[in-house]
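In this notebook, the sequence line spells out the residues, with the fold written below as integer tokens. This is how one looks.
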Amino acid sequence: MGNYVRSISETDVDIVIDIYKNCYGDDYPYKDFYSPAWIKKGVFADEIHWLVVETDDGVEGSGAVMLEAGDHDDLMGEFGRLVVKPGIQGKGIGAALVEALDKEATKYIEFGFGEARTTHLGSQTILGRFGFQPIGFEPMKYHLAFRESFIFYAKLYGHAQKLRNHRPLIVPEVEPLASLATRLMELETDLQVDTYAGRYPVGDNLRSESIDEMHLPRLLRIEMGRVQSPEIFGSLHLNYGFFKIKEKQAQYLVAHNTKDNDKLVGAIGFTIDDIDNKAKIFELVAVDDFVKGFLIDEMDKLLVSKGLSYIETDVSAYSPRIQKTFLSLGYHPIVYAPAMVFQDIERLDIVRFAKVVGKLELQEVNIVDDEGAAQVYETVMKAFQE
């Protein structure tokens, strides 16, 4: 029969769980992968395209494209959940899965990405084989047996390249990674470097507190950062509603002006992943630059005080002041993603910033014998070392 790739079915659930267990063992922190109910939910979810490879010996691997990594309009897909039965290397199971997922993705997305482990070379090799390019390195992002690092790979589909705004405005600290990523993806670009931009100021007479549902209607009146000139991007927004925010376990800090009847003047949103002990900042709305600076500082203090190991955020490659703000707080550019998000009538480049809290100690970092991946790794790590 060879390698037969098909959509996952309900009857495959227990088999796929066994493959995960055989690969990762009982100590695997992502226990959902061992839950029949969680796997079954993914089988029937419209936002997940999940495939398996079947041979004469039965189902021997699975992988998926998840369509909820970004906003609905972003047409973004994450390639993941890739697993192959141990001991059958060389049969092309992983390659068959990624090839089929790649073809499937062309129907739904314009920006595809995958985070490849550096403890081994398999996923890096396969993603590179199917046209994905390394555009970032994420040091110590996920907590498995230890805090593992990942190479961020991406590929553009459909109209992404034509719709891309190729005139980013970046700060000098971002320029090395931006130049490398756009070159590796063979994209037209006119990078402009702003050597004068400073960080956002921190306003006086402001106080912060956590959101509750009474704040939501007033926050929706603030358009700056929500529907006008957004500078932080993610898969969740205030206009999704309070119950959707709660469902995703998202949290917001809101800012009040104490000299203006405690008026609500902004908010910043984040999620916390308890398994990986990391946070993602996904939205910022504010009436002015002083509120932006205040909220970002307050958010950073809050997340660091919680003892988190890793904090990240995706910011606009056209806003040097927000780039400078995160740089001033010890964040570093780790991914430069051309045409990652869709805004108004065009696709925008994104800079992913990350803060590793505590000592940077990389373990088992293996990079494919590929000039691009090695250069991306060296460029990101140079920024941390400096």
